[in-house]
Give the backbone structure.
Amino acid sequence: MLNSGSSSVKYRLMSGNERLASGTIERIGEPGSPAADHETALKIVATELAEKGLGLDSPELVAIGHRVVHGGTTFTEPTLITEEVVRKVQELIPLAPLHNPANLAGIEVARRLRPDLPQVAVFDTAFHSTISPAAATYAIDREVAGRLRIRRYGFHGTSHAYVSREAALAVGRPAGNVIVLHLGNGASASAVSAGRCLDTSMGMTPLEGLVMGTRSGDLDPAVVLYLARTGGMSLDEIDTLLNRRGGMLGLCGDNDMRAVQERLADGDPDAELAFSVYCHRLRKYVGAYYAVLGTVDVIAFTGGVGENSPLVRLTALAGLEALGIAVDPGRNARGERLISTDDAAVKVAVIPTDEELEIARQTLEVISRTNRG
Ligand code: ADP
């Protein structure tokens, strides 16, 4: 599978569930990078694979899966890539101006290298296409919203799909209710019932919802007006403030949770405030999604922070015993798969995400469906 981002290309070659090769080409287009553009990056991928005897020209290669960030309302499931699909993904560029062009560049080069091979687009938004109109609609003028395709789409969908399924299986409730907390550089929560997403915290763009490494998450929309009118900031400056200089970075100068926690241990007041804002927001979403679901079988932590920070997990869920949520400190510190106490009604799990595996699985599903049909 290929994940062509704006400045990197990640690849993974899979045979069933087994990883045969993987790698990342970073800093595309930056001075000193081996890759000036996506074309060169994919050629490096092809060379790296060939060196391992697994060339892109191998007859054993059955398909290439591509991560595509925004599928809008057009794509609600993984889709075999055709000219028409490429055109429709292009139409969605205004909704994801940084990501979709990079994803398309990867698709275009891969199709040129292997025109004979089926290629599949797996959309970050698709898993959230099941959220109800009540959850997807912003309360603004409907004509304006409709014309400009303004609604909540949600992101990180492959991760939420994978982790919600694994968490439900881990507690023996495959059709159960799951709250997924995906906490990486970007962060999002979702409420999933019997494999269907009912709500998610990212919205029209990945800016909404939880506090992230460099994104503010939820904010009174009038703050944007105030920054422009009273603060005299341009739209680009506001964009940077909220998307790239917000979140933990804006609050304390560090976007990496490891650094924040080290400062916390030294009693740094800025780090303390940042950490408390982060965990407070997380706790609010847990409460909100508990209410959306009615009952919760399992809360699943994933992503770099969710998988590795016992302190975030413990703090975000502290004091919720009345809701049946209780984290066992020992299990949590050891990072066990299940970290709730034995008698807690709601299980709490740590589930390492695997978006690449999920993309490979979904790609194969599309291929076998196409072959059958
Ligand atoms: P991405 O969203 O880019 O895929 P990850 O899911 O890998 O990112 O998460 C990266 C973040 O995970 C880092 O910025 C860091 O804050 C956090 N992280 C990684 N390891 C730890 C750790 N041991 N303790 C706390 N946070 C960690």
